[in-house]
C-alpha cells in the first residue's frame, strides 16, 4: 500500500497555473504523476486548482490574481492549514521555499523541500538554520554547500501538452518573465542584428525594465503579446525558428527550455547555470556567451533535428521520469 503524501504548492497562482507559475506547474505535475502511479496524494493549493488528487484549500484564488488579498495572510493561512493536518500524512513534499521550513520541527511528519531557486541571499539564514532537513535540487548547478541534499530531480513536463511541430517557422520567440534576469533586452539585440522577427510573451515582472529596455524597441518586427497559456505557447512554437533564452544570471532549471524542445523547437540559451544541463549543446540547441554568439547560432539552427529535441525531453524531463526520481528520494526518507 502506498504511503500518504501531502504536496504543498504555492498559492500565488492556481495549480496548475493558467499563464505564469513555474513552481505551481511542477507541484501539479508531481501530484498528477504520483496519482497515476497509485500514490494517495493530497494537494494543498488554491481552491480553484485542478487535480485528480484530493484537494485541500483555505485560499480561494491565487493572491497574484486577487489584488485585494494580502499575500502574507494568504500564505500563512495556507501554510498553517497544511501543518495542522501533518499527522494525517507519511510525508509532506513542500514547494514553498523557505517559509515552510519554519514549521518543520513542530511536527513529527517528515518533510521534503524541493528548492526551486534561492530568490535572495537574505533568505539563506533560514536554509542554514534548517540545513539538516531533506532537500532536493532541480539541477546540479543550483545548489549551495551545507544543505542535506538527497538528490537532484529535474523538473518534468507533460509532453502531451506540447506536440511535436513538423515544420519549423521563421520567428524568434521569447517566453518568460519580463525581467532583467531573463535577458529580454538581449533577445531584442539579437533580433535587430539579423533583422529577424521576434515575438515576446510573458508577464511583466519589472515595469521599469519593460518601459526602458523593451517597449521602446517594439515595432512591426518585434512584438510583445503579453502572457500566454499552453495553447498560446503552442501557437508560438508552431511559428518558431528558435527560442531565445539569454538569461543574465545562472538559470535554476528553465521549464520553457524543456517545453520548447518538447515541441521540437531549438533553444539558444546563455551558457549559465542549468542551461548546460537542460540543453544538449549543438544537439537540442546552442549554448552561447553573448549576443554575437547567439546571432551566429541562428545561422546553424538548421543543424538541430526536431525529433532529437523531443527525444531528449522524453528521456530526461518528462513527468514520468521526474516522479520516478522523487519516488527514489521518498524511499530514502520513508524507509529510513
Task: Provide key terms for this protein.
single chain; 336 residues; alpha/beta; Rossmann fold; 2 domains; seven-stranded parallel sheet; six-stranded parallel sheet; 11 helices; globular
Topology readout:
Layout: E1 4-8, H1 22-36, E2 40-44, E3 54-56, H2 71-84, E4 91-94, E5 111-115, H3 124-129, E6 134-137, E7 149-152, E8 171-175, H4 184-194, E9 198-201, H5 207-214, E10 222-224, H6 230-238, E11 240-245, H7 255-262, E12 267-270, H8 275-278, E13 285-288, H9 291-298, H10 306-316, H11 319-334
Helix pairs in contact: 1-11, 4-9, 7-10
Overview of the molecule:
Strand 5, helix 3 and strand 6 (134-137) form a beta-alpha-beta unit. Helix 7 (255-262) packs across helix 10 (306-316). This protein has 2 domains: 4-156 and 318-334, Glycogen Phosphorylase B (Rossmann fold), CATH 3.40.50.2000; 159-316, Glycogen Phosphorylase B (Rossmann fold, 3-Layer(aba) Sandwich). The chain contains 11 helices and 13 strands. It starts with a strand and ends with a helix. The chain has a 7-stranded parallel beta sheet. A 6-stranded parallel beta sheet has the order 10-9-8-11-12-13, with helices on both faces. The protein is of the alpha/beta class and 336 residues long. Helices cover 33% and strands 17% of the residues. It has helices at residues 22-36, 71-84, 124-129, 184-194, 207-214, 230-238, 255-262, 275-278, 291-298, 306-316, 319-334; strands spanning 4-8, 40-44, 54-56, 91-94, 111-115, 134-137, 149-152, 171-175, 198-201, 222-224, 240-245, 267-270, 285-288. The mean pLDDT is 96.
Amino acid at each position: 500500500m502506498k504511503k500518504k503524501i501531502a504536496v504543498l504548492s504555492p498559492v500565488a497562482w492556481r495549480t496548475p497555473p493558467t499563464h505564469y507559475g513555474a513552481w505551481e506547474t511542477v507541484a501539479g505535475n508531481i501530484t498528477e504523476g504520483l496519482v497515476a502511479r497509485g500514490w494517495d496524494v493530497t494537494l494543498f493549493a488554491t481552491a480553484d486548482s485542478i487535480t485528480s488528487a484530493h484537494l485541500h484549500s483555505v485560499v480561494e484564488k491565487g493572491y497574484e490574481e486577487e489584488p485585494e488579498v494580502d499575500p502574507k495572510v494568504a500564505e500563512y493561512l495556507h501554510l498553517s492549514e497544511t501543518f495542522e493536518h501533518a499527522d494525517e500524512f507519511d510525508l509532506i513534499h513542500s514547494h514553498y521555499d523557505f517559509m515552510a521550513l519554519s514549521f518543520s520541527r513542530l511536527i513529527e511528519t517528515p518533510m521534503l523541500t524541493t528548492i526551486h531557486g534561492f530568490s535572495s541571499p537574505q533568505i539563506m539564514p533560514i536554509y542554514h538554520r534548517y540545513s539538516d532537513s531533506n532537500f532536493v535540487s532541480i539541477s546540479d548547478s543550483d545548489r549551495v554547500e551545507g544543505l542535506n541534499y538527497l538528490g537532484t530531480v529535474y523538473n518534468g513536463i507533460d509532453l502531451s501538452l506540447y506536440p511535436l511541430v513538423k515544420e519549423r517557422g521563421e520567428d524568434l520567440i521569447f517566453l518568460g518573465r519580463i525581467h532583467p534576469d531573463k535577458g529580454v533586452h538581449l533577445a531584442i539585440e539579437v533580433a535587430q542584428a539579423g533583422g529577424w522577427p521576434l515575438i515576446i510573451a510573458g508577464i511583466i515582472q519589472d515595469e521599469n525594465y519593460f518601459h526602458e529596455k523593451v517597449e521602446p524597441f517594439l515595432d512591426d518586427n518585434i512584438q510583445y503579446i503579453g502572457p500566454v497559456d499552453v495553447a498560446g505557447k503552442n501557437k508560438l512554437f508552431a511559428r518558431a525558428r528558435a527560442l531565445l533564452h539569454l538569461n543574465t544570471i545562472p538559470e535554476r532549471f528553465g521549464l520553457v527550455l524543456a517545453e520548447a524542445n518538447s515541441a521540437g523547437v531549438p533553444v539558444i540559451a546563455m551558457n549559465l547555470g542549468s542551461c548546460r544541463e537542460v540543453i544538449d549543446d549543438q544537439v537540442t540547441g546552442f549554448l552561447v556567451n553573448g549576443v554575437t554568439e547567439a546571432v551566429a547560432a541562428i545561422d546553424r539552427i538548421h543543424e538541430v533535428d526536431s525529433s532529437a529535441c523531443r527525444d531528449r525531453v522524453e528521456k530526461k524531463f518528462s513527468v514520468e521520469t521526474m516522479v520516478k526520481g522523487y519516488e527514489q528520494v521518498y524511499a530514502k526518507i520513508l524507509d529510513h
